[in-house]
Design a protein that fits this description.
The structure holds 2 protein chains of 2 kinds.
Chain A: H1 30-44, E1 48-52, H2 62-67, E2 72-74, H3 79-91, E3 95-101, H4 102-108, H5 110-118, E4 125-129, H6 147-152, E5 159-160, H7 165-177, E6 182-186, E7 207-211, E8 216-220, H8 224-237, E9 242-247, E10 249-251, H9 255-264, E11 268-271, H10 280-291, E12 296-299, H11 310-316, H12 321-331
Parallel strand pairs in A: 1-2, 1-3, 3-4, 4-6, 5-6, 8-9, 8-11, 11-12
Antiparallel strand pairs in A: 5-10, 7-9
Chain B: H1 4-19, H2 22-47, H3 52-69, E1 84-87, H4 93-103, H5 143-157, E2 163-168, H6 176-186, E3 192-198, H7 207-210, H8 216-222, E4 226-231, H9 235-243, E5 252-257, H10 280-289
Parallel strand pairs in B: 1-2, 2-3, 3-5, 4-5
Domain Transketolase N-terminal (chain B): 32-274
Organism (chain B): Nonomuraea cypriaca
GO molecular function (chain B): magnesium ion binding
Chain lengths: 337, 291
């Protein structure tokens, strides 16, 4: 990472000063951006291959399979095999994008991710599709809410969570261009655009300050970023001035941006579609605690989900703009009503 | 890091073996195996750590592969078209490290640091630290999937290189091996060979008393592989089994019937020598027997 002095930040409104206008009527499944970018990269680089576990459809690899049939390795329903094969393909000089539902990829093949990919420094791009609560009423067996905790504990494994299509495309491009293991969490639940126009959509290891504020900071990732922005608007109406950070690289975390939030605002709220015990919430809390302790609230599912669709479950766990507003007021010691 | 003297000696051995008759080849590989066994004993006894029994059962397989089969260049461990060798039973690292020093990947003196603080040679081989190690192993059931990926990747790249994975028999209780076995057969990976160091013992007991694997050859055949059974201490039989032309578009499994602790009378076929370390007296006796 560049030295502190050399760091240039995109700033709250993008490099060219264009403000982001949050339009929640236009939403996108980030897997589509992933699929388009992967095909574009594969056209330019014959080393790129895709590996999947019978998930050609759900990993959105249909177009890739049509254009590069020989470069798609579908191993069937066998995640340990899939990740080991990814490591082997990298050993042979290829750049494998190993795709599967995030819960099966990370839980079933966790030891392969640790030993064959991270510890072996294999040039494998692990793509956890449809993470968090996006499988809704299919239930907790299909929810990937522990992946961020598990993978953040593994050394030398960057953990990247793009928040919108522009970030997804930029993150995939970065992953293809960097040598070494990467985990990318590719969202399925539709999200609006949150990347400020004009700036780089994704810079590895950097958090993006999407909105300035002095009272508190909301640190969000993935699906929760647009909700954090909406929460900031609602809080502004009540006279509470909130900074919003989009943390798209969970590991390694942008410590400086978190330290700045703790120094310059009075409280920090984190929000993620993952258990906060080990995920973004814990990561941010570690930095805040070690540097400048301020009151915090960590939002995320803390139990197995009940039955319900994704939108219902996000609401159930307080992962909404209103939930973030409540947590922010509470942590600042302000009245909800 | 490469040991150029050792590389020279290894290249001369390979050149000699290319033209040697069978008795001469057998004698040369037996000499190499004896060197590896003696080094295994002194390394483990010096470090106070190691998997003596398995190291001694896999030694003849390793000496055959590094002595006569693998197309590698120890001076360029990352040569893109090298044959890939993966020791899936990573706990037998001392035998692997020793074999790598006999080819000159790094100097044999480094073996004295085995398991010492900050040594590149830890209890299980790390791809990060040791030239010639293709993937980090230790947890069981990892080598074959990686080997399948290597074989698929080399084919995609149009490389003629071959892939050989050595597995323990106890390790075949891990289901990931059978996932990989299916993929390898499905993709008709004729460049892939799995060798099972089948010594019949695992850490705590005989495999047949723990979770029986037999009939093992039938299992591999049922998974779509060619399977041959050989005496895993007969170098020429191993050589033939690994290098014989492929009759069908199938990956090959060589079930090498071995004896755990092979070469040292009081260790042979005894479960307690899985990871028991010889004391000074036992090491002396073992080295006498391996003269």
């Amino acid at each position: 990472m560049a030295s502190q002095g050399a760091r240039r930040r995109a700033g709250p409104y993008g490099a060219r000063g264009t403000a982001l206008i949050l339009d929640e009527t236009q939403t996108h499944d980030c897997r589509d951006a992933f699929a388009a970018e992967l095909v574009a990269l594969a056209r330019a680089d014959s080393r790129i291959v895709a590996v999947c576990n019978d998930s050609v459809g759900s990993s959105k690899l249909v177009a890739f399979a049509r254009e590069f049939p020989e470069r798609l390795v579908n191993v069937g329903i066998a995640e340990q095999d899939m990740v080991g094969i990814g490591a082997g393909l990298a050993n042979a000089g290829l750049v494998p994008f190993v795709c599967g539902a995030a819960t099966f990829l990370t839980a079933r093949a966790l030891e392969q991710i640790k030993a064959d990919v991270a510890y072996s420094l294999a040039n494998v791009k692990l793509c956890g599709m449809s993470p968090g609560l996006s499988y809704g009423a299919l239930g907790p067996t299909h929810h990937s809410t522990e992946d961020l905790s598990w993978l953040r504990a593994i050394a030398d494994l960057p953990v990247v969570v793009p928040a919108d299509p522009a970030q997804t495309r930029a993150a995939i491009r970065w992953a293809a261009g960097t040598t070494g293991p990467v985990f990318l969490r590719i969202g399925r639940f539709p999200v609006p655009d949150v990347s400020p126009p004009g700036g780089p959509a994704f810079v590895y290891g950097r958090a993006t300050r999407l909105r300035e504020g002095k009272d508190a900071t909301v640190v969000a990732t993935g699906t929760l970023v647009s909700r954090a922005l909406r929460a900031a608007e609602l809080l502004a109406e009540r006279g509470v001035d909130v900074r919003v950070l989009n943390v798209s690289t969970i590991a390694p975390l942008d410590r400086e941006e978190i330290m700045a939030a703790a120094r310059q605002t009075r409280a920090v709220v984190t929000a993620e579609e993952a258990v906060p015990t080990g995920g973004l919430g814990a990561a941010v809390a570690e930095v805040v605690l070690e540097t400048r302790p301020v009151p915090m609230r960590l939002l995320g599912p803390r139990s197995f989900a009940p039955t319900g669709g994704t939108e219902f479950l996000l609401e159930h766990f307080g992962l909404t703009a209103e939930g973030i507003v409540r947590a922010t007021l509470e942590v600042l010691g302000l009245d909800h009503n | 890091m490469p040991d150029h003297d050792a590389i020279g000696e290894w290249r001369r051995l390979r050149a000699r073996l290319a033209y040697a008759d069978r008795p001469a080849s057998a004698a040369a590989l037996a000499t190499l195996a004896r060197t590896i066994r003696r080094t295994v004993i002194s390394t483990i006894s010096g470090a106070g750590l190691g998997h003596t029994g398995g190291d001694l059962s896999v030694t003849d397989i390793l000496s055959t592969l590094y002595g006569a089969v693998l197309r590698i260049d120890p001076a360029q461990p990352d040569w893109p078209d090298r044959d890939r060798f993966i020791l899936s039973k990573g706990h037998c690292s001392v035998a692997l490290y020793t074999a790598l020093t006999t080819c000159g990947f790094f100097p044999a003196e480094a073996l004295r640091t085995f398991a010492a603080p900050m040594s590149p040679l830890n209890g299980h081989p790390s791809r990060r630290a040791v030239p010639g190690v293709e993937t980090s192993t230790g947890p069981l059931g990892h080598g074959l999937p990686v080997g399948v990926g290597v074989a698929v990747g080399l084919l995609l790249r149009g490389s003629p290189a071959k892939t050989v994975v050595v597995l323990g028999d106890g390790e075949l209780q891990e289901g990931s091996n059978w996932e990989a076995a299916m993929t390898a057969a499905h993709r008709r990976l004729t460049s892939l060979t799995a060798i099972v160091d089948c010594n019949g013992l695992q850490q705590g007991a005989r495999t047949c008393e723990t979770a029986n694997l037999e009939p093992l050859a039938d299992k591999w055949r049922a998974f779509g592989w060619e399977a041959v059974e050989v005496d895993g201490h007969d170098h020429l039989a191993l050589l033939d089994a690994v290098t014989a032309p492929r009759g069908a578009l199938r990956p090959r499994c060589v079930i090498a019937r071995t004896v755990k602790g092979r070469g040292v009378s009081f260790m042979e076929d005894r479960v307690e020598w899985h990871h028991k370390v010889p004391d000074a007296e036992q090491a002396r006796t073992a080295l006498e027997e391996l003269r």
